[in-house]
Amino acid sequence: MNIGQVWTSAPGVSNSLFYANAQLYIRGWIHYYAGSKWKLSAFTGYNHNRAIKSNKQQALPEGRSALQVIYYFKKSRYSLTNRVRFEDHHRKNESGGFSVAYRLRDQLKLVVPFNDSVIKKGSWYGTVSEEVFAKTSSSSLNSHWNKSNRFTIGTGYSFTDDFLVEIDYSNDYYFIKNNNEVYHTVQLNVSFYNWLPNLKNKFFKKQRS
């Protein structure tokens, strides 16, 4: 499970760097490891899009689900991965209905622990990634696909083996005909891993005591 908060700039607005508290989201995940190199995942979640002006999503909710596959080129000492994700977005519009859009993402990502060989309790780590997006603007997969690119760099700290906090800076470049746009965003992400087994272990530990 992870919870995130995003702040963003606004193209064409002077002195707008990270001025907008743009988005709050919560997601629940399930993962399956297919051998040592492949990881299959799915999530469903809720987004509160407080100021996503490009999607006319000011203060309107969005349901989002996704399927993704990750391939690990390297996992020891540092992690180098390629992630492909397919997302389904159900956004509430100003008329009260919902519009549907689909997004395909491909990301190359490097994660490096700074003070340990793996990320565990007490570890600081850094991340850098390059990601390309293609998404539809309506419910039809035959619609025009809007393309964008995202470069991200960030750092995180592991408070326990299963509780991590990370902050990232992203540069998002949107390829819009005759009017390309750049967004600068900062995202704070809090992640909980294995929380169901941890709750179960804690509950039974209390019962035994």
Write the layout of secondary structure elements.
Layout lengths: L1 E7 L11 E15 L3 E12 L10 E15 L4 E14 L5 E16 L10 E13 L8 E16 L2 E13 L5 E12 L2 H14 L1
Antiparallel strand pairs: 1-2, 1-10, 2-3, 3-4, 4-5, 5-6, 6-7, 7-8, 8-9, 9-10
Strand order of the largest sheet: 1-2-3-4-5-6-7-8-9-10
> What pattern of helices and strands is seen along the backbone?
EEEEEEEEEEH
Share of helical residues: under 10%
**Domain count:** 1
Shape: globular
Distance between the termini: 28 Å
Number of strands: 10
Uncertain spans: none
Could you say which structural class the secondary elements and strand pairing correspond to? mainly beta
The number of helical elements comes to 1
Q: Which fold does the CATH topology refer to?
A: Lipocalin
Tell me about the largest β-sheet.
10 strands, antiparallel, barrel
CATH hierarchy: architecture: Beta Barrel
Question: Beta fraction of the residues?
Answer: over 45%
- Supply Rg: 19 Å
Could you name the key traits of this structure?
1 helix, Lipocalin, mainly beta, 209 residues
What does this structure look like?
There is one protein chain. With 209 residues, this protein is mainly beta. The protein has a single domain (2-208), classed as Beta Barrel (Lipocalin). It has one helix at residues 195-208; strands at residues 2-8, 20-34, 38-49, 60-74, 79-92, 98-113, 124-136, 145-160, 163-175, 181-192. The protein has a ten-stranded antiparallel beta barrel. The chain is globular and about 60 Å long. The model has no long low-confidence stretch (mean pLDDT 86).
